[in-house]
Amino acid sequence: MLSRLLTPRWVLAHLVVAALFVATFYLGHWQLTKAEAGGGAVNWSYALQWPLYGFMGLWFYVRMCREEVHRDPDEDEPGNAVVLYQKPRIDTSGDPELAAYNAYLAELNERALRQRADRG
């Protein structure tokens, strides 16, 4: 199961996430040096926020990896389950123009369903 996380796409993603995680700490250190040099409250807040952004991104990425490991590999393939479509009810009471429009939409729906049945 862990072999799914070793495909070229995932390895590239691992490298990008690692680089971004390190970059957030570099940016936090940079903001800290600016704040210590008299940069003000904004620099102090960014000095704390950058590492938090890094940990938050890493947390989301770990969750994404865990979902990939526990995902059923066959769920991506189209199934042969029967999907039942309910024929839409046409409202004929009230406005005749609206009823004609609804009948037109129902006809389009029927055509689409027939074309789908012919293909599949």
From TrEMBL:
The chain crosses the membrane at residues 12-32, 44-62. Keywords: DNA-binding, Membrane, Transmembrane, Transmembrane helix. One of its GO terms (molecular function) is DNA binding. This is DNA-binding transcriptional regulator of glucitol operon.
